[in-house]
Write a structure and sequence with these properties.
This protein has helices at 3-12, 29-48, 60-84, 88-112, 126-129, 132-145, 154-176, 179-209. It is mainly alpha-helical. The chain has one domain. Helix 3 runs antiparallel to helix 4, helix 4 (88-112) packs antiparallel against helix 6 (132-145) and helix 7 runs antiparallel to helix 8 (179-209).
Length: 248
């Protein structure tokens, strides 16, 4: 029974009006945020490993806008929208990482305008290294939350675990100036970025088809069988929720 029908029925019976429930539909913001994380993290991780470009002080100037917008602004907005979707893990972690990428983009913009000089990764940078201590800690705690039997899944755990540990390793590399540590951290970030792509694709396809397309990785067999319908959502049949149709 819809909220409007319940309210009118209560009035017709002479009782106090029942509270009306008005819903505002919202797509899963985590999909947008995860793909923002995937794009920005994959670009910078492959650059650190030397897969493209020339690791040094000049290359980031060419892609800091991309990372600042896709990894920063887009991920931050997805995190803010996740509060409304009541997604506790996404609201905290996407907002936090979005803030990091925006801060990184500002730093690189200052370097591009020669306002500051950013040393190469082979130089000890404790001031920059400390950024990754809280980032790694909060992300690792998110991986613990991803083990929840009700809401968690293994791909999400893999994403948060590898990025959390990778952040700590990157902190060690920046603090010591030993590039081996930053290279190992970059590999952890690549694994995390691929997991982010998978979780984003899994969420989008499941929302579009309303059934399992890619295995979700939860701790029950049904969630990992393609074609399984896990939920039967309650929907308002006469149009958008909150829009009254016809006369009472």
């Amino acid at each position: 029974m819809s909220a409007i029908t319940a309210t009118e029925t209560a009035r017709g019976n002479g009782s106090a009006a029942a509270p009306g429930v008005f819903l505002q539909p919202i797509a899963p913001p985590v999909t947008l945020g995860l793909w923002g994380f995937f794009g920005s993290t994959m670009v910078i991780s492959t650059w650190i490993l030397g897969w493209w470009g020339h690791p040094g002080a000049t290359d980031p100037g060419y892609f800091f806008v991309f990372n600042g917008i896709l990894g920063g602004a887009v991920q931050f907005l997805a995190g803010i929208w996740s509060f409304k979707a009541r997604d506790y893990v996404a609201s905290s972690l996407l907002t936090m990482w979005g803030t990091f990428w925006m801060a990184w983009a500002i730093l690189e913009a200052l370097a591009a305008t020669h306002a500051i000089t950013i040393p190469p990764l082979t130089t000890s940078q404790p001031g920059y290294a400390v950024w990754f201590i809280p980032l790694g800690t909060f992300t690792f705690l998110g991986s613990v939350a991803a083990l929840s039997k009700k809401h968690g899944n293994l791909p999400l755990w893999l994403l948060l675990f590898t990025v959390g540990v990778g952040s700590w390793l990157f902190c060690i590399g920046l603090w010591t100036g030993v590039k081996t540590w930053t290279d190992v951290a970059a590999w952890f970030f690549i694994v995390g970025a691929c997991a982010a792509w998978y979780v984003g694709a899994m969420t989008m396809l499941r929302s579009a088809w309303r059934r399992v397309i890619l295995p979700i990785g939860r701790f029950n067999r049904a969630s990992n069988i393609p074609g399984t319908q896990l939920e039967y959502p309650v929907e308002y049949p006469a149009g958008d929720p909150g829009v009254r149709q016809g006369q009472a």
